[in-house]
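FW: tagging you since you asked about this chain on Friday. Here's the raw sequence from the shared folder, copied in full. Didn't touch anything.
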Amino acid sequence: MSQPVLHIVGAAVGEGASDGGCKWGSNALKEHGLQRALAATGRTVTWGETVSAQPMLASSRLGAIEGFSEHLAQTVAQVLHHRQQPLVVGGDHSCAVGTWSAVAEHLRPQGRVGLVWIDAHLDAHTPDTSDTQAPHGMPLAALLGHGSVGMTDLFGWRGKLLPSQVAIIGARSYEPALLNQLGVRVMYMPEVLERGFAACFAEARAIASTGTAGWGISFDLDGLDPRDAPGTGTPVEQGIRLADALQALDGCSHDPQFVAMELTEYNPLRDFGGQTARAATALLCTVLAPSAATLELAA
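HL: got it, structure written out here
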């Protein structure tokens, strides 16, 4: 069975982050040749609309993200409506609200969406618990139904993700108690180092794909070790090594239940020499169009 057209949606948003440079991440990866690299592995790839946050039209930072989330969700919904596979390229991680709200709405007649969340941070704050009030620290909470109505209630309903169908890998921050209360499986970095990323990802994939109508991956580049991907706004030491991630993620999109991919927090203003752009390209090629040749992109 042939794979669907891979449709890239740029998410030009940095307003949710403390360092807004990731707003230019999707455009930088486009100029780096991401579409060409994906097409070279055999996929039919189109690059569609870039959705941009419009802070001047909003009364607050959170309001800008709420408006952006709605626009991104509608864009991703159209991609799915046309039976294409969305790849959302950010942009700060607040874009996850729009991406996965759309996927959840699309799959709703058949069931739920499961999600593997790879990140150095838990992103499960709400406006009531966040010291920084940075919306990129709130998307997972919102998708689980907690936070501002403009983020939780896209398409008129909340709880896009069920806690039992979400798994987080690579966290090095120990933020709010919400995920513990909900029972979300969190594999902190010490566990990843002990068990290996491959074993942790296999468990996370099983959590996200069991009892769901489809599953996907939201990959924050700060989940990687800064030695491999320094070009993010919030790098955290001792992360997942790129080579380990490439080996474990190879072939995900050949699973018929795999519905979407999201890559976030690429900050080209911090990516001197393009090392992180190469890492991001290798990751996406490995997940979405597996080929032994893609491993060379990480060299």
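FW: Confidence is low (pLDDT under 50) at residues 291-299.
HL: agreed, and The first strand starts at residue 6 and ends at 12.
FW: great, closing this out.
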